[in-house]
Amino acid sequence: MLRLAFGFAVLGALLLFEPARAAPLSPQAQAGRAAMQAAQCNRCHAISDPTGGDRGLPPADREQHCVDCHTWILGTKGDEAAKARMRAQFPDWDRYLDSIQHFVRLPDLGSLTRRIRPDFVRGFLDRPFDLRPHLDERMIPVRLSAAEKDAVVAYLAELAGADVKAAPAPGPTPSPAQVAEGRERFLALGCPTCHLTGTTALRPGLDAAYWQAMRPVAALAPDLALVRRRIDRATLVRFVQDPQAVDPHTAMPKQAVGPQDAERLADFLLHAELGERPRPAAQDFPVLARKVTWDEVFDEVLGKICVHCHMHPDSNNGDGGAGNTGGLGFAGLGLNLETYDGVREGLLRDGKRVSVIAPPAPGEAPLLYQALARRHTEFAAGGVASDAKRLGMPLGLPPLSGAQMRLVRTWLAQGAPGPK
Ligand code: HEC
Ligand code: HEC
Ligand code: HEC
Ligand code: HEC
Questions:
Q1: Ligand 3, atom 21: nearest CA belongs to which residue?
Q2: Nearest ligand to the CA atom of 251
Q3: How high is the pLDDT of residue 89?
Q4: Which CATH number fits domain 27-160: 1.10.760, 1.20.120, 1.10.287, 1.20.58?
């Protein structure tokens, strides 16, 4: 009797503490966590433990953290006293406030697989593509082995408590009337104020200025035509009713969606003909009929966009960025784009210096231009294979504009002259 009572007490204690004490990570998940740390995923993403434990990956220090540093700077925007303090230390503070647009909001990966199917995440690591139409930034190629990517998915699934092996139930096939009703509810509930749905323009006339103004709440809103590849039906039905109950870190606000609404919304999102958002076509960028100076190329392109990953190591405590001294899972190619001398020194390949401004062979474009043109090709193809040998630039950002492409091309064609 005494033993039994004791047994119940222990059981009761276990039940009481169960939610806080999530299972320890398996060896494979631990390997995935280590791979994410080595690839510095925590310089962009939060990877928080949804059970409040310590199985997540702590963020990188702010001096390294793309999002934390940018939001820290932008956080002084409305605060005159803070700005005055910062200006005393950093005279260009006001310019920083104007220029920082990207890597400000990114999804938390810690509870992602409570919503997103692990098999989708695995495919995404092999070939990242655009999920969020209002977010300029893109996920970068993941330079990890297949076994390491498997381990990353195992880690994210264990962290979130998701079942990697469970096959999602396909659910009922709705009637055309149910799909049409889902569409009506989708409109009536205001979903298109934040979400695009493939080529199906449900609320025509929303322009770039509208989406710019909506960025604080809609930047992370995915294209919902992708839902059928990302979320299984049962999870979707729960998620649209109470997003935070499914994924405590999600940025989707709770809407007034009842169980009947949720079923019809799922009918619509999983079964309507939604099409694929059109991709930009690859184009050619003819040379300009005027002289282009180094200063222009630096101010409009290299200094504005590229230096953040191709710095002179001396200007950043020895860290020349992912494309120079390495980081974000890349070994680095020794390419410094912060000074003219750096650009002339080119990059390191197989231990040898290779020019990025001279044509590698007659009739071929210099490597600098090739990398910029490749980014346009990657966007036209709708993504990039993580194991691609040569990557388009700027990494993680949209391709350069036509005006910027023509500037660089013309400068290179004129022999890449240096500063006066
Ligand atoms: C330089 C910043 C950066 C780094 C470093 C980075 N990511 Fe991302 N990641 C992004 C951006 C931006 C997105 C959003 C892309 C979109 O929505 O189209 C993203 C999206 C994702 C997604 C998809 C989330 C979803 O909603 O389905 C996964 C999974 C992911 N990243 C995993 C990783 C892993 C694993 C690493 C480390 C190996 C990593 N990321 C490193 C920028 C980064
Ligand atoms: C220590 C703070 C800090 C960190 C860490 C940091 N940045 Fe920045 N970033 C800045 C500042 C300051 C600017 C504005 C610079 C200027 O105006 O000259 C900037 C601007 C940028 C820009 C150009 C403006 C824009 O938004 O398009 C890009 C791109 C960028 N950063 C990418 C990154 C990436 C990628 C990382 C992580 C690998 C990163 N940054 C980490 C401080 C930081
Ligand atoms: C105020 C803006 C806003 C509105 C309105 C809104 N959403 Fe969202 N929604 C978001 C954001 C932001 C996310 C991204 C969540 C994340 O990545 O954590 C999201 C995510 C989602 C997802 C997950 C998609 C995926 O691929 O990960 C679904 C499904 C969804 N919303 C459905 C809806 C439906 C249905 C409605 C209307 C009832 C709606 N949303 C209204 C902002 C909004
Ligand atoms: C978010 C970081 C990041 C940004 C921003 C970035 N780069 Fe890179 N860059 C890299 C990394 C990392 C590599 C090395 C890739 C590899 O190892 O395959 C690289 C490689 C390169 C290469 C060599 C490509 C090859 O393999 O032939 C060139 C040229 C280049 N970058 C130019 C640029 C230019 C020009 C810009 C601005 C328009 C830019 N990069 C912006 C990270 C970045």
A1: 252
A2: 3
A3: 94
A4: 1.10.760
